[in-house]
Specification:
With 163 residues, the protein is mainly α. It contains nine helices and no strands. Helix 4 crosses helix 7. The termini are far apart.
Length: 163
């Protein structure tokens, strides 16, 4: 850790030559190894500011989780993201939303909030565009939607999981 390096006299070296980044120091000292920035305790400063790094993380995550198809990402959850080093990314750039993250890194795919194992926060608003099916204008309107309409609208899988 940075604290360990500082306590052992490496403060100047780390600060001056490596911008106080263990990742930068290790990558420079051992360039032959393919270091993965998000696996360090902290990603390098401004690392997540580059959107290409978001895409690289999503691809890495998919491989680590055994995803074969973009649809497999519907199973993704915050625990898996955090366990693989992306908590800061999701929290800082996507307000903690897996749905927003995936929409950004896979814009060519049409993400449907209803297909996630855990429905994204606030996604009920997306049903407002389909007024002819649900006529949902405010949260209280959900009380009067019949179960049969939920099934027709594609909620069968979720109902099987939670029934």
């Amino acid at each position: 850790s940075v604290t360990d390096i500082n306590q052992n006299g490496g403060t100047g070296l780390l600060t001056i030559h490596y911008k106080n980044s263990i990742y930068t120091a290790i990558k420079t000292i051992f360039p032959e190894y393919p270091w993965i920035p998000w696996k360090f305790n902290r990603a390098p400063i401004n690392f997540w500011s580059n959107v290409e790094n978001h895409k690289a993380f999503s691809e890495y995550l998919g491989k680590e989780l055994g995803y074969a198809d973009v649809r497999d990402y519907y199973r993704l959850n915050l625990h898996d993201v955090a366990a693989h080093g992306g908590a800061g990314l999701i929290k800082s750039f996507y307000n903690g939303s897996i749905y927003l993250f995936l929409k950004s890194v896979f814009p060519e795919f049409e993400w449907n909030p209803r297909n996630f194992v855990k429905t994204p926060k606030g996604s009920y608003r997306s049903f407002e565009s389909n007024d002819m099916t649900f006529s949902v204008k405010k949260l209280e309107d959900w009380y009067r939607v019949p179960l049969s309409e939920f099934r027709d609208f594609g909620f069968s899988r979720k109902m099987e999981l939670y029934s």
